[in-house]
Amino acid sequence: MAEVRDDVRYLASHEWVKLEADETAVVGISDHAQAALGDVVYVELPEVGSRVAAGDEMAVVESVKAASDIYAPVTGEITAVNRVLEDAPETVNEAPFDTGWFVKIRPDDAASLESLLLPSAYQALCESEA
Amino acid sequence: MTLMQTCLYSRHIAAGGKMVDFSGWQMPIHYGSQINEHTAVRERAGVFDVSHMTVIDVIGQDARAYLQHLLANDVDRLATLGQALYSAMLNHEGGVVDDLIVYRAPEGYRLVVNCGTREKDLAWLQQAAEGFAVEMMEQAELAMLAVQGPQALSVLNQVLPTDVAQRFKQLKPFECLFEDDLVVARTGYTGEKGAEVMLQKDAACALWDRLLEEGVMPIGLGARDTLRLEAGLNLYGSDMNESVKPSSCNLSWTVVHNGRNFIGEQALINRVPTETEHKMIGVILKERGVLRSGYPILCDGNQVGVITSGAFSPTLQSGIGFARVSVEETSLTQLSAEIRGKLVPVTAVSLPFVKQGKAVYQLLAD
User: Is the pLDDT of residue B122 over 90?
Assistant: First the structure.
């Protein structure tokens, strides 16, 4: 069974987002998502400094199976991207909640995270898709 | 519709297989990591369950004449028992109905065709048999395993019955042996050394178990696809179909014109002058990324072709694909693939990309 972290929020499209102490939001894809994708072979990341709106396609993850869009969970500015994924995209499979993160966003409104899925709701979603 | 299962279904589950619907069959797409499976076949040995493929025996006094009429390759190349031949069968317009391997069997011939085209092929075979004294018998009870990789031959020598192993050692590529219900052929779909084994279901289960005991890794359909792509081998439905002629999908080498008048031959000879001529080449992405089927191929801003099969190549660590391109408009040194609206340059290369674990492609020039 795929791991569902308790300390993050989720999108129904399988991204997770976590608010750090400095109020930046770290975004990645869930364990369930990486397992469904299979081996990740390429990640296309946005430009640091670019603006994204919640729901925008902001990155692409390509696995052996297919290309999938990664959606921005919040509106704000990209402050960092995970360069590790450029040379080691398999990190997304190995540690989706940790070193396999995609981007950091400085949200315009940090409170907007609270409207995203709680771990329990996301767990139920994954079970319904299984 | 209920999905069909091969006799190895419970073994796929036991090995951690992630099962998917493949043309009506529940087959493993991978057993954990498609890339690890791909690498195992390139570096060691892997076993594939290909029992879903369709096996048809053709017997009768006209079997040879019938197959010379049906197939674009000439079964007369199979001079003796124990030889195998790759061929396309064409429709009257010269398009590919299916590709297959034909084996010269003790009685007549054995065909192995694709599973996704089974019903169409059976109907085509019947219809083309009009006027020939032949009988077609599908062997649905047989299972088939492919064992492929640099260690495949030595492992098979260990696990096959001693007398069969003695005969197996003598076989060259595209040769096969028949021993009652057991057929072992030096054929495959990976670009590695190896064999395909047709046998009864309980024998197939026993062989699977022995191969896994010897450390042979089970390989899913995902790695089967990337292995055949690196090996420059076509996939029916992607790289060829009923409106694609052999010359447009790199199969000219399998077409033999020797006056025997096979189905589709006239259409190949009487080419319509206005018809755009296509050829299939290999392409490698010059930047990081993945090629997928359907991506347009451009030259000087104009679309000149399309990717028919694409993937990330674990051996080359690059995006690779087959591109069907128009012969006239294409400058091979200036091609790009359109990926999500962006043009990314590609290198045009000869096929295959990889043979026996090594990159073997050559750069193509105009």
Answer: yes
> In CATH, what number is assigned to the domain containing residue A29?
2.40.50.100
Per-residue pLDDT for B289 more than 80? yes
Instruction: Let me know if residue A21 belongs to a domain.
Output: yes
Query: What is the count of residue pairs from A and B with beta carbons less than 8 Å apart?
Result: 35
Mean pLDDT in residue range B50-59: 98
Specify whether the backbone of B357 is left (phi greater than 0), alpha (psi in -120 to 50) or beta: left
pLDDT for B276 equals 81
In a domain, A35, yes or no: yes
Residues 212-251 (B) with a CB less than 8 A from some CB of A: 222, 226
Q: Three-state SS for B164?
A: helix
SS3 readout for B65-84: HHHHHHECCCHHHCCCCCEE
CATH architecture for the domain at B276-359: Beta Barrel (2.40)
Q: How confident is the model at residue B208 (pLDDT cuts 50, 70, 90)?
A: very high
- The answer to whether B288 contacts chain A (CB < 8 Å) is yes
Contact B34 A38 (CB under 8 A): yes
- B319 in contact with chain A, both atoms CB, cutoff 8 A: yes
Helices vs. strands in chain B: H and E counts, helices first = 9, 21
Predicted pLDDT of residue A87: 93
Contact A65 B292 (CB under 8 A): no
Asked whether B264 and B94 are in contact (CB, 8 A), the reply is yes
Domains of chain A: total: 1
Q: Given CB atoms, is A1 within the 8 Å cutoff of chain B? A: no
Residue A1 forms part of a structural domain: no
Nearest-Cα residue of chain A relative to residue B32: A38
Helices marked H in B95-217? 118-128, 152-159, 162-168, 201-213
Residue of B34, B292, B340 with shortest CB distance to A39: B34
- Asked, for residue A55, whether it belongs to a domain, the answer is yes
Please tell me the predicted confidence (pLDDT) of residue B268. 95
Name the residue of chain A whose CA is nearest to B287's CA.
Answer: A42
- Phi and psi at residue B83, in whole multiples of 5°? -125, 155
CATH class of B9-52+140-230: alpha beta
SS (H, E, C) A59-118: EEEEECCCEEEEECCCCEEEEEECCHHHHCCCHHHHCCCCCCCCEEEEECCHHHHHHCEC
CB contact under 8 A, A38 and B311: no
Give the residue-averaged pLDDT of B329-343.
Answer: 90
Domain of A107? 9-129
ipTM of the complex: 0.89
Q: What is the pLDDT of residues A17-75, one digit of tens each?
A: 999 999 999 999 999 999 999 999 999 999 999 999 999 999 999 999 999 999 999 99
* Domain edges within chain B: 9-52+140-230, 276-359
